[in-house]
Design brief:
The chain has 10 helices and 9 strands. By secondary structure, the chain is α/β, with parallel strands linked by helices. It has 3 domains: 143 residues, Rossmann fold; 43 residues, no CATH class; 36 residues, no CATH class. The strands form 2 sheets. The protein has a 6-stranded parallel β-sheet, sandwiched between helices. It has a 3-stranded antiparallel β-sheet with strand order 5-4-6. It is elongated and about 55 Å long. The termini are close together.
Length: 237
């Protein structure tokens, strides 16, 4: 772990990690807004449109074609950042992971208190009867996945035009308010309302680790422009 960050961690008793797509890049999951990211690739429709509630309702076949092709990475494994955060939690330092990611890799690494602002690909429900389905159920299906009742199975991910889950959002606010160190990593902080959660932090230190500048850099106590996995890697608790 970076020495400056290690000193902040050692001085803290209630750390909250706030992360985004950059955390999972080292697991082989592409981000959205970098030069080679998803939003810079060419499709018949813009990804923002495909990943909207309106498009899901209007063209479910096209939605699931894109979703399976670009949003699901079942072979991805936790990287150094995920594992380090899980060790921080086990050491009693980290109280919560607030993530914008939907891949479930924090849980796979061993983190217990994970607040998924944008949902998870591992949870899917029938839009008609509410029956639960796993990621494997969706992967095994073809075309538009359907429940035994005939309803469309929808991933529990927040699409454009949908609100964040209020229970998860409130839990994230409470965690951030109680933190003495807020560690922000792997996120451009350009996605709202998620990025707006930082305004609830009033603790001792704000640390930002990201490959590119973020809007929070100016008020951060520590800014490291580097890979979150490289910075956190090697932390043993």
């Amino acid at each position: 772990m970076d020495g400056r960050l290690r000193r902040l961690v050692e001085a803290s008793e209630a750390i909250v990690f706030f992360g985004g797509a950059g955390v999972s890049c080292e697991s082989g999951i592409p981000d959205f807004r970098s030069t080679d990211g998803l939003y810079h690739q060419e499709y018949r429709w813009p990804p923002e449109e495909i990943l909207s509630h309106a498009f899901f309702e209007r063209r479910p076949e096209e939605f699931f074609r894109f979703y399976r092709d670009k949003m699901l990475y079942p072979q991805a494994e936790p990287n150094a950042a995920h594992l380090a955060l899980a060790r921080l939690e086990q050491a009693g330092k980290l109280k919560a992971v607030v993530t914008q990611n939907i891949d479930g890799l924090h849980q796979a690494a061993g983190s217990k208190n994970v607040l998924e602002l944008h949902g998870s690909v591992h949870r899917n429900h029938c839009t008609r009867c509410g029956a639960f389905y796993t990621l494997d159920d969706v992967l095994r299906s073809e075309g538009v996945p359907r429940c035994g009742c005939g309803g469309v199975i929808k991933p529990d991910v927040v699409l454009y035009g949908e609100a964040l889950d209020e229970t998860t959002l409130n839990a994230a606010v409470r965690a951030i308010r109680r933190a003495d160190l807020l560690l922000v990593g792997g996120t451009s902080l350009n996605v709202y309302p998620a990025a707006g959660l930082l305004r609830y932090f009033t603790g001792a230190a704000l640390a930002v680790v990201n490959k590119t500048p973020t809007p929070a850099d100016a008020r951060a106590d520590l800014v490291i422009q580097a890979s979150i996995g490289r910075v956190l890697g090697g932390f043993e608790g």
